UniProtKB/TrEMBL annotation, chains A, B:
Keyword list, A-Z: CBS domain, Chloride, Chloride channel, Ion channel, Ion transport, Membrane, Repeat, Transmembrane, Transmembrane helix, Transport, Voltage-gated channel
Regions that span the bilayer: 87-113, 133-161, 182-203, 209-228, 249-273, 279-299, 311-330, 336-356, 462-492, 545-562
Ranges of biased composition (kind: Basic and acidic residues): 10-19
Matches recorded under PANTHER family: CHLORIDE CHANNEL PROTEIN CLC FAMILY MEMBER (PTHR11689), CHLORIDE CHANNEL PROTEIN CLC-A (PTHR11689:SF67)
Residue ranges of every copy of the CBS domain listed in the record: 715-780
Similarity comment text for this entry: Belongs to the chloride channel (TC 2.A.49) family.
Claim: Ion transport is one of the keywords in the record: yes
Region annotation (Disordered) ranges: 1-37
Keyword Transcription regulation: no
Name of this chain's protein: CBS domain-containing protein
Length: 788, 788
């Protein structure tokens, strides 16, 4: 092991010629400057490509580490009390704005969907009442076709990243992976209108996931001061010009989105904490909570305004989705059995759903790659199929007589909402399947959750409902429109929950509506594998605290059962998209591997001198794709404790900063160290925070090539380091916990001609898949367990 | 800066003579082996003493880092699938048991308190009805005196660590500070019975804090297999023989305690997350949630059993403390004003309370240090004073006529509970102050929270109530009995909340009872500075989701206001006790200091050779008090990339393991490396996990002194390291996030005779106070802000 890892140090004298491993190997054809002296059979691969939205893009890592270079240090020292207060004030103002805007946009979306879908359904019901079934079908299908086409065209043509829920990408961003165009203005707008179109088209997808993404987009745009091309260069905002603060703001945005989707402020905070965020601090908990509180207040005000009937068809629909607070819940010890059964079924079905969805998504990505037309066709095909089923299947159900306890206005109804739809039935009768299918998704959930209606739904109708939504749930998610996963899963889960409730019959006192709620919760836990946050979301949704203990048991069982089969749906999507997400727990085999061994199978590290020739910098930037270069000063003059000729690891410099140097032509005619004022005259920390520089934009004259640059002031002098004997497991935990982009490997030897840095680790190097490719003997399939 | 930090490396040749800085300088008189060559004016102080309970004790750090030595690595490699499943099964079983036992003990405590206090109050009321006021007073005071004496004697004589709430010590434990005797069997038993006595004595303290500590004690005892002297040496438990798993279990225990105290399972989890825990992982969220779910089920079963009246005077008392779910809450936009006012008052009063409590606690610690008798006297004095006030003050209140809407059984009442106490009033009248004072604390809270009773309490009565509980709240907390902080703060807060409700009069529609709830919430936020967890606890307590938005606003305002004055009450207590708690956010001045400069003002690091002489080990253990020693191998034979004569930093060895080596006399007659089987024959990982070894117990014969020990197999080969140029801020974040005990400082120079390790950092070195003592110029009072 030691021999192996120290091979890296073989040619310490040629530090200048060494080269670093590719973090993001943009140009796989580019040959390394020097071939490694030792031919290696195994190399650590890294793939910078990932699916962003439905497109394959290059991805980059984020700089969550504080870049402590001289400019930062100066800024830090000179920061006045007023500036600190400005920063704090701005932080809270932005959190407030994120909440406010998310709340307002959620309001807009709800209003639009309820009105569009409502008028559409009213027209269809009107036609059905006149027995013009075929006209009704054509109208219904055409309306849905157009709405779906609208959403799909927006998505395909203007912002492909707006397709899908966006939650996996937010998860990846908060883990340190920047997916391009994910949080831009175009994505935001397409997401808003695409979501309205897709949900109003009656597709089996929710507005919940998109709302989370919308919250994150708002946060990102606010944090950077507007859309990328028209950014506000407001002085105050410069404190936010770093990935750390933006990360916190996006966490606030994601929480606000969940809160807006479910009116669950605490649930929103916990969702971010449990599912989305990688790093979490107490201070962030508080700020996130503030954002969601603002959203809750906005939504409350909106409901109050709408309760007077000024919002068109909105009425009481939309937001308070599944209020079951009016139910008196009684349950006894024996009720634990149906609860456990629901949990187990939820876990099994949830993991089965994950498995099948994975297959469908792979098929879809194959279709989607064929071009825009294929994407559009797929989307509208699903929309037409959905419409046909929703319209046609209710004809299969038998008409049920209205109960004697129901008034005439209650049953049958012909409005856009109402629990007993007449559809094709004679007066005094209702069609239970039409109640479930010919309604907006929110209404469908409300209908199937309805309590104290033990005889409303027939078993055949529920079976058709469940089967239909299983099929739709699998085939709708992957199409090119903004789509959330929450609602399809809730619909599916409530279907089998209610079926189970009927099957239990007189055995239990639990209401069938609660069975539906528990079924939905179990399937969500079985598929998404959240516990505390789901529990709180359901608590806030159902507004009934007495449900809490049984909900907890259902969630725990469903998650446990699901975890024993496959990972959560978000992890599956992350993997499918190829986003280099770092898991919280290292794989067991990582304990048996040192970072030295890992560095050994990588191309050697490319270092720069503290005062470097321009030609060398240009050369390195052109021929490598690395984003960080260690700065090594050779031949240190003897000091106390340090002999002559020692080399010094000064720190690490980012590619972006090297590009800034070249762009600004901050060149020296002789090889010397600069003073602090010189660099402060030329660079500001705002400029250094920019990441957008491209090497192609730089032009260096031939005579400038022979000049020098003092890289010391721009170097991060406090990079995190590990010894080469460090185990990969520990290094990975360090990397993830500290939110690093580069981790330097220092030798465990002192003296004897060892270079001060023997390697560099990046996110890609720590991914289990990449490691196992280089070290196939480590893969022991029998030990699939992770530590935790 | 560079010159300064490299002075450390001055005498690289004398590595063996170097010595390490004291982590826990047990014997401040012990002289360092070699005086540092450079006389330093400033040194980094470290104080290993802290108040544990009411006693000053030596404290130690915990080993949360995974000690990757050869034995661990072998264990890891040879771990079978079955063992992994055993471990997972055990983890969940223990989490279940923690929940179950905490729930049962909470039941026991509630039953005992309600019955003892209930019969006591019934007897007093009986005497008052007969107008035998003096006898009533004597009986009341004597009963309370005896109960308080019982609690105090238990605490003072058997387990001084059981005094107080215990939450700060749990916080410190989870931060990595081991406070001796804090989680033992004696503490647990004294805490249970002391809490029963103290609360039944009517003292102004709650059972909530003690329940949290009880949960943690149960978890700790289960995790180590029983009390320290009678530990189960069950094979399965050996996987738990490490500080990491015990930490997780104690987090579960603390959550269970909060859940048992407030019947708030989600609130319990969030309390641990927000207030108690330093490290948190998604997996832990789930396990904690499981524990609290078990507690919730146990409590529910218990309430169901007791609702049939088989629990003596328990009845409906005790657990469901402040259910206000039957209130229909209406509030409008204008209600924001009283809500903001409550928040501001809560913040101001909360920070004032923190300030005054700090002063009182300092006074008390002065009294308590004088001996056991003083402690006992202080406790019973407070008890007698409390009794006198509770009995005497109601005589000051005017009798109020019962409203016409109340039935005769409702008003006046003479039972142990009931909202309209007759006390000294004629028939048809009630004494409002007696209702509040002559009841158990839980009942008092229920009475003052009571809704739809706008005329029940008079302003003078509420003023007396508020003033009394302000005084009692300050002077009761520090006495030597188990005491929680939640209830005193709730009582105080509800007092001014209700007063404010009366003052608002017809301006607002919010019920006075809700004002009392909001007042309690605001004072808790103002003093304890929690937000999300308090919000959820209040949500679960009051069982009314409509309160959520205004509770959130109140909490946010109160916390913001409070934070601008002083730190939270737990931080104040932590500071007062001298526990070396590491904050989440580094102080700003830490950015301007490197770890090299820090290492420079410490005594030099003591290193050992890989194969070391016994005499040297004995010498080092005797003359230093450090708990970790870097292992440096000199004169490495030339390898690929490493020249002759290089030194190698092999890792770090713990004092406990050196003691094991000496105890087991694992000595070699010649200087050689051992094989892996040799060490596995002698040591098991269970033995290495023990921490209890003392140097005094070791006897080494004179001839053994010249023998050798191969320390390599016992060395943690993967210690975390930082470069000497690393800033202290980053190093501190690393230290805290990774849960370290030692952090090695490596040189930034390679070659030139630099030693492979130039210093070592411990918890004490990273405390702001210690740093500022050594570098007074860094303290800039104008910048009190922390980063976050």
């Amino acid at each position: 092991m030691e021999e192996e890892s120290s091979q890296v140090a073989d040619h310490a004298k040629t530090i200048h010629d060494m080269e670093e491993a590719a973090e993001e190997d943009r140009d796989p054809e580019s040959k390394p400057l020097n071939q490694p002296l030792l031919k290696r059979s195994r190399t650590l691969s890294s793939n910078p490509l990932a699916m962003v939205g439905a497109k394959v893009s290059y991805i980059e890592s984020l700089d969550y580490e504080i870049n402590e270079n001289d400019l930062f240090k100066h800024d830090w020292r000179s920061r006045s009390k007023v500036q600190v207060l400005q920063y704090i004030f701005l932080k809270w103002t932005l959190a407030f704005l994120v909440g406010l805007l998310t709340g307002l946009i959620a309001t807009l979306i709800n209003l639009a969907i309820e009105n569009i879908a409502g008028y559409k359904l009213l027209a269809v019901i009107h036609l059905i009442q006149k027995k013009r079934y075929l006209t009704g079908f054509i109208f219904f299908t055409a309306a849905n076709f157009l709405l779906a086409l609208f959403a799909a065209v927006l998505c395909v043509c203007f912002a492909p990243t707006a397709a899908g829920p966006g939650i996996p990408e937010i998860k990846a961003y908060l883990n340190g992976v920047d997916t391009p165009n994910m949080f831009g203005a175009a994505t935001l707008i397409v997401k808003i209108f695409g979501s309205i179109g897709a949900v109003a088209a009656g597709l089996d997808l929710g507005k919940e996931g998109p709302l989370v993404h919308i919250g994150a987009c708002i946060a990102s745009l606010l944090g950077q001061g507007g859309p990328s091309n028209y950014r506000l260069k407001w002085r105050w905002l410069r404190y936010f010009n770093n990935d750390r603060d933006r990360r916190d703001l996006i966490t606030c945005g994601a929480s606000s989105g969940v809160c807006a989707a479910f009116r669950a402020p605490v649930g929103g905070v916990l969702f971010s904490l449990e599912e989305v965020a990688t790093w979490w601090r107490s201070a962030l908990l508080w700020r996130t909570f503030f954002s969601t509180a603002v959203v809750a207040v906005v939504l409350r005000a909106f409901i109050q305004i709408c309760s007077s009937g000024e919002c068109g068809l909105f009425g009481t629909g939309g937001l308070i989705m599944f209020d079951v607070s009016n139910v008196t819940i009684t349950y006894c010890v024996m009720d634990i059995i149906p609860v456990v059964v629901i949990g187990i079924i939820g876990g099994v079905l949830g993991s089965l759903y994950n498995y099948l969805l994975h297959k469908v998504l792979r098929l879809y990505s194959f279709i989607n790659q064929k071009g825009r037309l294929h994407k559009l066709l797929l989307s509208v095909t699903v929309a037409v199929f959905t419409s046909a089923c929703q319209y046609g299947l209710p004809f299969l159900a038998k008409c049920q007589p209205c109960g004697s306890s129901l008034s005439e206005t209650e049953c049958p109804t012909n409005g856009s909402s109402g629990n007993f739809k007449q559809f094709n039935c004679p007066a005094g009768y209702y069609n239970d399947l039409a109640t479930l299918l010919l309604a907006t998704n929110d209404d469908a959930v409300r209908h199937i959750f309805s309590t104290n209606t033990p005889t409303e739904y027939q078993i055949p109708s529920l079976l058709i409902f469940f089967a239909l939504y299983c099929i739709l749930g699998l085939f709708t998610f992957g199409i090119a429109v903004p789509s959330g996963l929450f609602l399809p899963i809730i619909l599916m889960g409530s279907g089998y929950g209610r079926l189970l409730g009927i099957a239990m019959g007189s055995y239990t006192n639990i209401d069938q509506g609660l069975f539906a709620v528990l079924g939905a919760a179990s399937l969500m836990a079985g598929s998404m594998r959240m516990t505390v946050s789901l529990c709180v979301i359901f608590l806030e949704l159902t507004n009934n605290l007495l449900l809490l203990p049984i909900t907890m048991i259902v969630l725990l069982i469903a998650k446990t059962v699901g975890d024993s089969f496959n990972p959560s749906i978000y992890e599956i999507i992350l993997h499918l998209k190829g986003l280099p997400f770092l898991d919280a727990n290292p794989e067991p085999f990582m304990r048996n591997l040192t970072v030295g061994e890992l560095a050994d199978v990588k191309p050697q590290v490319v270092t720069l001198c503290g005062v470097e020739k321009v030609a060398r910098i240009v050369d390195v930037l052109k021929n490598t794709t690395h984003n960080g270069f260690p700065i090594v000063d050779g031949g240190v003059v003897a000091q106390v404790g340090v002999g002559n000729g020692a080399t010094e690891l000064h720190g690490i410099i980012l590619r972006a900063h090297l590009l800034q140097v070249l762009k600004k032509k901050w060149f020296l005619s002789e090889k010397r160290r600069t003073e602090e004022w010189e660099v402060r005259e030329k660079f500001t920390s705002i400029e250094l925070a920019e990441r957008e520089g491209k090497f192609e934009e730089v032009a260096v004259a031939r005579e400038e090539m022979e000049m020098y640059v003092d890289l010391h002031p721009l170097t991060n002098t406090t990079p995190f380091t590990v010894m080469e004997s460090m185990s990969v497991a520990k290094a990975m935990v360090l990397f993830r916990q500290m939110g690093l982009r580069h981790l330097l490997i220092v030798p465990k030897f002192a003296g004897g001609g060892v270079p001060p840095v023997v390697g560099i680790l990046t996110r890609q190097d720590l991914r289990p898949y990449n490691i196992l490719t280089a070290f196939p003997h480590l893969a022991r399939p029998k030990e699939g367990e992770k530590e935790n």
